[in-house]
Design goal:
Largest sheet: 4 strands, antiparallel
Oligomer: single chain
Structural class: alpha+beta
Helix content: 55-70%
Strand content: 5-15%
Shape: elongated
Order of helices and strands: HEEHEEHHH
């Protein structure tokens, strides 16, 4: 079992929320990835040597599963080998050794490049999730502010009705409502300018 094959299994679609591992004794354990990279999680799983790996969604529904020893490809000992009749040739041995060194260097570079690519994709996913959360908070704040304005407007309407009952003129009531609305808009505008100023300073 190797971490690279496990990592390739974990990053398949649909994305997982948690990982359930079952060992040879039937005991299970749950891994919550959080913001950890799949490469690090794969290394942890490879060290634990589970018999079964299960990927779950938010509701705990099984997305996919695998038995590493039977389905995940293990890293084979690759490299060039010489026929028996050439093993006594020093030049053939030298060339074979050099070819094996180049092959291992290329394999190592490929593994590193793939790991970096996976980390980059995971960071992009985390950034997108963070942006979505900020947008949701901003939208909730706007809805809350709109409710507060509506509540304030209803309070002013009720106040105007009371003042009308008290005998104030129609012009006085309208002037009071307009001043209240303009005052609320000015406060909201100064708040927005303050927020923009903070964003520019950052």
């Amino acid at each position: 079992m190797n971490a690279g094959a496990i990592r390739a299994f974990l990053i398949q679609q649909p994305p997982l929320t948690s990982i359930r591992l079952t060992d040879s004794n039937g005991d299970t354990s749950i891994i919550e990835p959080g913001k950890r990279s799949k490469a690090k999680i794969a290394e942890t799983i490879a060290a634990m040597q589970p018999d079964l790996i299960e990927c779950l969604d938010k509701q705990g529904t099984l997305l996919r599963a695998t038995r590493p020893e039977s389905t995940l490809p293990a890293r084979a000992a690759t490299g060039l080998t010489l026929p028996e009749e050439l093993k006594a040739d020093p030049y053939a041995l030298m060339l074979t050794h050099f070819a094996n060194l180049v092959h291992r260097a290329y394999e190592h570079a490929t593994d590193i490049a793939f790991a970096k690519l996976v980390e980059l994709v995971e960071r992009m996913d985390q950034r997108s999730e963070s942006i979505e959360q900020r947008l949701e908070r901003a939208e909730a704040g706007m809805r809350r502010e709109q409710r507060e304005r509506l509540d304030d407007m209803w309070d002013r309407v009720a106040e105007a009705a009371e003042r009308a009952e008290a005998g104030e003129t129609k012009d006085q009531i309208l002037n009071g409502l307009v001043q209240g609305v303009l005052g609320g808009q000015a406060a909201a505008g100064s708040k927005a300018n303050g927020s923009n100023g903070k964003g520019q300073r950052q």
